[in-house]
Amino acid sequence: MSIKAQTLIEVSEISKSYGDREAVKNLSFSVAEGTVLGLLGANGAGKTTIVNMLTTLTSIDTGHASICGYDVSSQPYEIRQLIGLAGQFAAIDEKLTARENLKLFGRLNKISGRNLNARIDDLLQRFRMADFADQIAGTCSGGQRRRLDVVSALIAKPATLFLDEPTTGLDPRSRADIWEVIEDLADEGTSVLLTTQYLHEADRLADEIVLIDHGMIVASGTPDELKRELNRDVLEIHLDSDVAFRSAVRLVNDQPDIGTDENAMTIRIPLSNGAVGSLALLRRLDDAGVTIRDFQVRRPTLDDVFLAFTDA
Q: Domain 7-221 falls in which CATH fold?
């Protein structure tokens, strides 16, 4: 018999406005221990505002949110003892070494002496930071600084961790290192709320997805559930020149939810009638003399879900 995981983050109908602009509108979701919730949306959709509200950096206008049973609005001190936060911009002191940064965060969390030193040694070893532990943070690579920023948020062993676009700008190797950190934390029972612009990252890490657009939830579920919900294949066409790309876009622009990538000269067309629809569109391009480099019909990805449910 499976044991249901305890809910650590509970959000009910929270809203936030700035003047006449509603940044977040009546959002509700929950995050259980040992799970990763991916909060997705275009720039300006409200992701960072949600993180700021739940971490007590911004007040909640209406609604209710709790973390480990403590009310975010009325018990901010208790909340801050339970959470870790790595925002979009690293909070480390670049004049200190990695070890000194961890010691600083430990003291801010009122950890000292042998307990703090043992905690730092454990974190440095577990997250493969020993090689740059005594290096000035400002001289570390971007990936090393970002890993230090994430690990600094773990110094007090938080029950919940908020990561706001933790891998933006990192190279693939550094991004994979952060992914491994997040997966290890979830395996140990930490609940993680992750915002990201990389949909393949959410597909890899998130147990549940909440997709927001203009401050409202437009879709939610596991990555597989969201992809199945589209109930359609995607025709992906790759063109071999700018001229061919522009011509192809004009010829298929009557299709709903079309996605284009001018840099990659790629067009993505969702199709409810699969192979039949694909053949008709390919014939349309061929009859017009458009040269296609290659094409494929594939199952939907989170990119397709994102395009289908948002205005992005």
A: Rossmann fold (3.40.50)
Q: How far is CA 108 from CA 39, 113, 114, 128, 156, in A?
A: 28, 13, 16, 23, 10
Class (C level, CATH) for 228-309: alpha beta
Tens digit of each residue's pLDDT (9 = 90 or more) over 207-227:
999 999 999 999 999 999 998
Residue ranges, CATH 3.40.50.300, the chain:
7-221
Report the C-alpha gap between 38 and 15 in whole angstroms. 19
Concatenated DSSP letters for 17-33? EETTEEEEEEEEEEEET
Consecutive H or E run containing 74: none
268 CB contacts (<8 Å, ≥6 apart)?
234, 235, 236, 237, 258, 259, 260, 261, 303, 304, 307
Neighbour-count burial of 172, counting CB atoms closer than 10 A to its CB (0-12 exposed, 13-18 middle, 19+ buried): exposed
- Give span(s): CATH 3.30.70.100, the chain: 228-309
Residue 80 tokens read as: 């801050």
Q: Which tokens belong to 229?
A: 């919900």
For the segment 256-276, what is each residue's pLDDT rounded down to a tens digit?
A: 888 899 999 999 998 877 778
Laid out side by side, the sheet with 83-86 consists of 83-86, 160-164, 191-195, 36-40, 208-213, 216-221
